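Figure-free illustration: sequence to structure, shown twice.
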Amino acid sequence: MTSGARTCVIAFPGQGIQKPGMAGKIAGTSAWRLFEEASDVLGYDLGALCMKGPEEVLNHTSQAQVAILVTCLALWELAKEEYRPALFLGHSLGEITALGAAGAFSFAEGVRLAKARGELMATAPSGGMAAVLGLDPDTVYELCTKVRESGFSLQVANENSPGQTVVSGDLPGLERLGACALERGAKRVVRLNVSGPFHSSLMAPVASEFESVVSQLDLVTCHTPVLSNDGETMLLSPDQIRTKLITQITAPVRFTKQVQRVSAMGLKEFVEVSPERLLTPLARRTESNLQFTLVTGGGI
């Protein structure tokens, strides 16, 4: 860290940014060694997958999660001397990246953890997710309750911004929710290209299996706090981290609350470390007074 490093919050995205070429700005740098180390753990060439695809393999949850984690940690490796993180946070999978950046576990442990999480989430039960655009979160929660009363499984999965809430559940429930949301004035309801009902109670069997993985993690206390996806808990101790890693599988990601907490702490700069801008537009809709920076290859 340089003497002129900027105090800020460092944020890492979740699944959705993966695409061939995502590691293009890392190739040839000192941080490329992370792809080599990850490949040794995984048993396949992760760098080649991130650079060349094939896209259908990279998009699969079992590969996408570890690819995103390694790419974002490599970008942070290149940029970290420029910043003084007061706090790390991440969206869904990004919370694991944040914990790795905060020193909760070794790089190899993080790779194994992301690999296991991706593989288990690929076995998710039938269901899906949909983004409701243009309704406030309270209205979406109300609609989910109404749909559940009709016998469907449905709940809020991501509170992304004041006007974007993602719901997760069984497919008939999503259909009913979409119709109800449009009747209440939603601008759009967009089905997400995901393989299961992530961050919902339907993921309980996956969370149970993931618990056995998390229990074997070699964890230490974070050197910098990580703001949990609940928007409230500051993760530092191994016991806290184990609990939140497991409950996150079925619990909602309250990103709006995370961003509000950042502002309430008096932090001024929100730095997204990612191959492309994903969290920044959501955060700006929540707290437009923050300064936003995208780190996408060792620079701004």
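We now fold a second protein in the same way, so the two outputs can be compared directly.
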Amino acid sequence: MRRIAIAVLMVCAVFFGGASAAHAGARQADAARRYAQIAAALHPSEGNYVVKDFRFHNGQTLPSLRLHYTTLGHPRRNSAGQVTNAVLLLHATGATGHQFLAPPFAGVLFGPGELLDARRYFIILPDEIGHGRSSKPSDGLRMNFPRYDYADMVRAQHLLVTRGLDVNHLHLVGGTSMGCMHTWLWTEEYPGFMDAALPFACMPVPIAGRNWIARQMVIDDIREDPAWDNGNYTKEPESGLRGALGMIFFLLSAPLHDHQIYPTREAATRFAREFVKDRLPHLDANDMIYQWDASRDYNPEPRLGEVRAWVTAINTADDQIDPVVLVGIERREIRKVKRGRFVLLPVSDGTVGHATYNHPAVWKQYLAQLLRESSR
């Protein structure tokens, strides 16, 4: 339990922080206390499912693909043997399944009496391929690791759920950012497998424009650092990683929120230096290249009309990855989904840009509505 709590705080610190050192320290201490209060009720369990001779759709194979996961609760079946209470939650780029165990998320949704009460639901939190304790380039293969994409990641998730955990139906599949895009793919690849879907912070169209430009810059910042050495480095290519982190910060930033948190030049300067310093020790350059490249052929748009689940797609007006000026795209595409709804959260004191998905207190009413509709 202590290891999980530490990992939760590390995920928050690495990619979802947003405060000065003193403020972040106080917030992390509070997070630890809150997590300890709900940990007894959550009973998280961790494990690995190994897929032998996993074949990626580009033809490459991995003799042994390890898929790490965390679960809360226990599956329940109806008289026909169908699991009725399973929830699959899919994390963001660079994170792990422990993203959802952070107190602002778990304390709001998984605790006793909450919408996804772990005593009632069987909650599945995988580490995606290339992330966390699942198989990834930094395990040893480096740039010889198969060049996976989102389709491969979703197929592996399905194998974990069905064969590894013996779950034959999901009440809800939801995901954030990268996991949001995986959620859209789930609704199309396995249209009868889930009742409801909650894709948060993405669009159901190919990645292009500024979004892909930024991703390519993250990759190129690393590759163009001579220390990267075609992935054969003995020491992390720090210059390339610093450049990549700078781009990632602007993707995750929220102008109003950041102006309120860092209202002076001195505060902003401290954070700029802490942001990079705190994150560098936890990054692997090859893993990072693979993670950001995996979205290269994502495109659920042609099959949106095949989606059978109830879908609520959510974005925030201060999201810098899928900015509000592009909201017309999502409003147009959601019309193709028979039971689809799009929600744009207005900027507020509770929104923090792209990572607002980590704060369900802001949006849980829409999840509640989705669960009611899909349970009829």
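Summary for the second example: The domain at 2-44+71-374 is CATH 3.40.50.1820 (Rossmann fold).
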